[in-house]
C-alpha cells in the first residue's frame, strides 16, 4: 500500500453512529476527505465530543490457535492522528485520506476466554481480491470513543468482491501472568473473508453532533457483536488487592493496588491502571513510574518503571514488583511518556501532559 500522507496539526478522527447520508467532498487541492465535516475550530486540550460518527460494517471473525479472537470491521476512510515527538515535545499529526483509500479497516484483538484486549502487539493486515489488489500493511494501535482500543488504518480496496484478508497478530511485548504466561509469544495468522461493495459502504449511516461537538465529554462506547459474540471495548478492570487510591490528570484516571497473589511472585506487586476520564477505557503505550511512601513520608519504593502487563483477572495494566511494600503506603505516579497510541477525533488533543499524580 502507499505510505500515508499526513497533515501537521493537533487533532483526531472518528467513532460510529446513525442517521442521514452525506456525500463525499474534495478540498481545493483535490484531496478527498470522505464524509467528514470540518473540525471544531477551538478544540479543548482535553477529551471532547467529536463532530460526527459513522456506522461500521462488520466483516468477519476468526480465532488463533492460541485462543485470541480477531474481528474485522470497516467504515469510510477518515482522518486520524498519530503522536510524534518534535523538538522535545509530543504532539499529534493528522493523517489525511489518500485518493485510493476505500475504507478505514479496524481489527479487534482479545483473549476469547477472558475478554482481555491486547494493546501490546503489532497487527499486519494483508488483503487480496478485487481488481488485482494484493496489499499488506502494519496497521496502527488506536483509541476511539466508540470502539475503545483497536488496530486500524485507511486501506486500499479496488472493486466489489469477497476479499481474502490475512490478519497477523505479532508476539506481545507485555509481561504476562497467570493463565497468560507462555501465551501470545509468537506471531499468529488468521484468515477472514471480507465482503465489500462500494454501494454497501456508501449506505453506512452517519450522524453529526452540531449541538455538542467540541464540548468536554465523550460518546458512550457502542455495543459490538459478531457471530453472537460480544466484542470488548477494553474497559479497565478492578485491581483487587489492597487499594492505594485513585487520581486524575490530563483526563486520565489512575488507580493502584498492591497484590500478593502467588502468580505475581514472592514479593508484593504494584498494579496501576490508566483509563480515559469518561467510560474508563484502557490507555496503552504510556511510560509510567511509581513511588511508594509511608505515613512518615519515608520512601518505601523508589521511583520504579511500571511495565505494560497482561493478567486474566486484572486485564491490561502497568506493574512492577515492589519488595517491602505493605499496601499502607501512599502511591505517586509519574507520567514519563504520554500515550503513543494513535487517536480518533475527540482524543487527539488530550493526554499530552507528563504530570505527577498522587493517589488518594
UniProtKB/TrEMBL annotation:
Signal peptide: none annotated. Pfam families: DUF7350, Iron_transport. It comes from Halonotius aquaticus. InterPro entries: DUF7350 (IPR055774), Metal-bd_Tp34-typ (IPR018470), Tp34-type_sf (IPR038482). Residues 238-359 form the DUF7350 domain. The lineage of its organism: Archaea, Methanobacteriati, Methanobacteriota, Stenosarchaea group, Halobacteria. This is Tat pathway signal protein. Keywords: Signal.
